[in-house]
Design brief:
mainly beta; two-stranded antiparallel ribbon; 2 strands; 0% helix; 14% strand
Length: 43
């Protein structure tokens, strides 16, 4: 498990949607070019 104390700038809750043979998460355009981590939650 990786922890990055003090490094979280924004937290979003989104739903993964189908995209052709893959999947995507829609986020605001201001995050273009930013590094993100996607964390999958258990239901």
């Amino acid at each position: 498990m990786m922890t990055r104390p003090g490094k979280i700038g924004t937290a979003l809750e989104k739903t993964v949607t189908p995209f052709s043979n893959s999947a995507k998460v829609d986020v605001p355009g201001r995050f273009i070019g930013k590094r993100v981590y996607v964390i999958m939650l258990k239901n």
